[in-house]
Design goal:
The protein contains nine helices and 13 strands. The protein is an alpha/beta fold and about 270 residues long. The protein folds into two domains: about 90 residues, 60s Ribosomal Protein L30, Chain: A (2-Layer Sandwich); about 160 residues, 3-Layer(aba) Sandwich (Alpha/beta knot), CATH 3.40.1280.10. Helix 1 packs parallel to helix 2 and helix 5 runs parallel beside helix 9.
């Protein structure tokens, strides 16, 4: 499906200017609430007619009004045009996501316990990408780094799955992951790749207390060979069942909180 989908009010014929890029959509109560809390510039907020007086939306509507965000109440037929099932009759259109540059990400403060980056090596599933971004923000990561091509960008599904984390965590988009890792190493950031195999050490035995970038690969293939060569060391999470590996977002969560555990003890 073309991500540029025509959305229109049901009481008027479609016009060219109504075509909107769905990457700019933020949907669901919590995701919209977090975007408003972070004062992201929203162009318009759409709310279902049936939720005008819903107490659960009071803070959202008050915050939107205070920020001058136009609010439009729409019927169920309007929301049926969206490809998302979990919109909860609350949809906002924001500005295109404001990515930071890699240099800007490297210049950020490490929040008192060392810098911590999460690098996604061509993760195409937006649900996995969003879940990793959420875990990274919860674990106090400095920034997330994603590639420009063959990977999920920060679109509506990523924002929804991240539960508002994209409003608080800097995300850099780079042309080449391996090149970005080389630049990070020049900035004295150590690179740890999540991998399987005998050449990867047990994650609890690794030293995560230095400025660090965790590289998480896609489901199935994992991190690519060219990216693997740029890692200073590889770490693995043991699997005790019959399935060969953990979901990418679960693995990221395990590693992120091992970093926090080690730095907390230090």
């Amino acid at each position: 499906m073309d991500r540029r989908r025509r959305l229109r009010r049901p009481d008027r014929p479609p016009r060219r200017k109504d075509a909107l890029d769905l990457d700019d959509v933020i949907y669901g109560v919590h995701a919209v609430e977090e975007a408003l809390a972070a004062e992201e510039p929203l162009r318009r907020l759409y709310v279902g007619d049936e939720r005008k007086r819903d107490p659960a939306l009071r803070k959202v509507l008050e915050r939107a009004s205070a920020l001058g965000v136009p609010i439009r109440y729409e019927s169920r037929s309007f929301f049926s045009q969206f490809p998302y099932r979990a919109h909860q009759s609350v949809v906002a259109f924001g500005q295109p996501f404001n990515y930071v540059t890699l240099d800007e990400a490297l210049a950020l403060d490490g929040k008192g316990s060392g810098k911590l980056y999460v690098v996604l090596d061509h993760i195409t599933d937006p649900h996995n990408a969003g879940a990793i971004i959420r875990s990274a923000e919860c674990a106090g990561a400095t920034a997330v780094v994603i590639p420009e091509r063959r990977a999920a960008g920060v679109n509506a599904t990523v924002r929804k799955t991240a539960a508002g984390a994209t409003a608080h965590l800097p995300i850099a988009r780079v042309a080449n992951v391996a090149g970005a890792l080389r630049a990070m190493k020049r900035a004295n950031v150590w690179i740890a790749g999540a991998a399987l195999g005998d050449d990867a050490q047990l994650y609890t035995a690794a030293d995560f207390r230095r400025d660090l970038a965790l590289v998480i690969g896609a489901e199935g293939p994992g991190i690519s060979q060219v990216v693997r060569k740029e890692c200073d060391y590889l770490v693995r999470i043991p699997v005790y069942g019959e399935v060969g590996s953990l979901n990418a977002s679960v693995a990221a969560g395990v590693l992120l909180y091992e970093v926090r555990r080690q730095r907390g003890k230090a």
